[in-house]
From TrEMBL:
InterPro entries: DNA_methylase_N6_adenine_CS, RNA_MeTrfase_RsmD, SAM-dependent_MTases_sf. Pfam families: Cons_hypoth95. Keywords: Methyltransferase, Transferase. This is 16S rRNA (Guanine(966)-N(2))-methyltransferase RsmD. PANTHER family: METHYLTRANSFERASE. GO terms for molecular function: methyltransferase activity; nucleic acid binding. One of its GO terms (biological process) is rRNA methylation.
Length: 178
């Protein structure tokens, strides 16, 4: 994986093969960040990266100037890798080792963008729990957005607060807003 734009543009990051991850493709990530770039100033936002895995999305935000980034994952190896990479690049990414759903139930922090990249094999109930907890606990700022990455075979359009989806190859991004 590589960082698409910003201060660390072009830098390659190689995650250990033992991590249970499926990083967002460069093509899908570039398309997603083009959308975000048209709506927000990266320096002015706060980001929550759920199921962070390799930290791919967090690094992209940090490279573009976002300094309020929280990355959450239940896997110790993922959190360790994100911490090491963030330190090597001098990025301000706060990591939290936690089950994502437990984190969402307890968090009181508001974010401009919440990005979630859960395992593609999640069942419908698990996917529906993400926007449910985010909006029930008011974790988004007024102009904020929840973006959920999922397989093109998963349809989230019936969930509350669903706005729209974008399809990039086998990747889908569903957007949820107030």
């Amino acid at each position: 994986m590589r960082i698409i734009s910003g201060l660390y543009k072009g830098r390659r990051i190689t995650a250990p093969k033992k991590l249970p991850v499926r990083p967002t493709t460069d093509m899908a990530k570039e398309a997603l960040f083009n959308i975000i770039n048209n709506q927000y100033y990266f320096e002015d936002i706060s980001v929550l990266d759920l199921f962070t895995g390799t930290g791919n999305i967090s690094y992209e935000f940090a490279s573009r100037g976002t300094d309020q980034i929280t990355a959450v994952d239940a896997n110790f190896g993922c959190i360790k890798f994100v911490n090491e990479t963030a330190e090597a690049f001098d990025m301000s990414i706060t990591t939290i080792k936690s089950d994502v759903f437990k984190f969402l139930e307890k968090s009181a922090q508001k974010y401009t963008i919440i990005f979630a990249d859960p395992p593609y094999n999640f069942d419908e109930n698990a996917f529906s729990k993400l926007p449910e907890l985010v909006f029930q606990n008011a974790l988004l700022e007024d102009e904020g957005v929840l973006i959920v990455e999922h397989s093109k075979h998963t349809d989230l359009s019936e969930l509350d607060h669903y706005s729209h989806s974008k399809n990039y190859g086998g990747n889908m991004f569903s957007f949820f807003e107030y």
